[in-house]
Amino acid sequence: MFELKDVRYKDILHIKSMKIPDKTITCLVGESGAGKSTLLKMLNIMLSPDHGDIYYQKNNLKLQDPIQHRRHVVMLAQQPTIFEGTIRENLQIGLVFSEQKLKEEQELEEALKIVHLSKLLNDDAETLSGGEKQRLALARVYLMNPEFFLLDEPTSALDEETEEEVIGNFIKKAKEKEQSIIMITHSQKIAEKYGENLLLLNKIEEGQDG
Ligand SMILES: Nc1ncnc2c1ncn2[C@@H]1O[C@H](COP(=O)(O)OP(=O)(O)OP(=O)(O)O)[C@@H](O)[C@H]1O
After folding, report:
1. Is the CB of 202 within 6 Å of ligand 1?
2. Does residue 8 lie in a domain region?
3. 33 lines ligand 1 (CB under 6 A)
4. Which of 11, 13, 14, 37 to mutate to test the pocket of ligand 1 (most atoms within 8 A of CB)?
5. Per-residue pLDDT of the chain (210 residues; tens, 9 = 90+)
6. What domain count does the chain have?
7. Which of 38, 18, 98 is nearest to 66 (CA)?
8. Residue 199 dihedral angles phi and psi, to the nearest 5°
9. How far apart are CA 148 and CA 2, in angstroms?
10. Looking at this predicted complex, what is its ipTM?
11. Is 34 in the pocket of ligand 1 (CB under 6 A)?
12. Where is this protein localized, as stated in its record (predicted)?
């Protein structure tokens, strides 16, 4: 579980109190610029709050080693990086970064299936379309098999039908493994269909505190 206590970041975020449960699909919604990505980055220790504390499984993130934390909590950025090389290399690189054993070909192929990417492992990743790159990056974090996924609009470049299939598959697998997800989404349909817990972030208005 994540727990936030009086967290402030510049004039972007002020969260007095928030709990984000384990083994749950949490959808994070709110207007553009409300600070959703900023919040996810704080949960992954890419940013630190100016004030207040964030706890993960009761441990204060201020005292945690970011590299260690990211073995348990993996973030998929809004514009994920695709590296020069093959699809195989792009899948394995998440495991290299988190110092995990590389996966067998069969597991890599299964990950591609989950995200509906019908390409060969030897294909060049850089020639993929925007939506295909997004799915490749989602397959990469899937293989990292963390306790908690932080997904920043993971399927924003996909058409509605593919989006639902990919998210549906991903969530099914996460549920089987009792993993937790926080997902930023602009799709009301996705939030309604898959969100077990809904978090709404509002923009801080002038004069408003929290
Ligand atoms: N490091 C930073 N320093 C200053 N301002 C920042 C920083 N990071 C983000 N911002 C600003 O904070 C606000 C919130 O940004 P953020 O990306 O968290 O919003 P969001 O809710 O994820 O938006 P969107 O739905 O458009 O992706 C924006 O106005 C952004 O320009």
Report:
1. no
2. yes
3. yes
4. 37
5. 999 999 999 999 999 999 999 999 999 999 999 999 999 999 999 999 999 999 999 999 999 999 999 999 999 999 999 999 999 999 999 999 988 999 999 999 999 999 999 999 999 999 999 999 999 999 999 999 999 999 999 999 999 999 999 999 999 999 999 999 999 999 999 999 999 999 999 888 654 444
6. 1
7. 98
8. -115, 130
9. 10
10. 0.92
11. yes
12. Cell membrane
CATH code of the domain containing 29: 3.40.50.300
- Residue 105 exposed, middle or buried by CB count within 10 Å (0-12, 13-18, 19+): exposed
| Residue 93 burial by Cβ neighbours in a 10 Å radius (0-12, 13-18, 19+) | middle
Does residue 37 line the site of ligand 1, with CB under 6 A?
A: yes
Q: Is the CB of 10 under 6 A from ligand 1?
A: yes
Residue 77 within a domain: yes
Closest Cα to atom 7, ligand 1: which residue? 38
Domain annotation covers residue 206: no
Tokens of 123: 């294909």
- Our answer on whether the CB atom of 36 is closer than 6 Å to any ligand 1 atom is yes
Q: How far is CA 197 from CA 27, 77, 136, in A?
A: 6, 21, 26
Residue 59, C-beta contacts closer than 8 angstroms, at least 6 positions apart: none
Residue 103 falls within a domain, yes or no? yes
26, amino acid identity: T
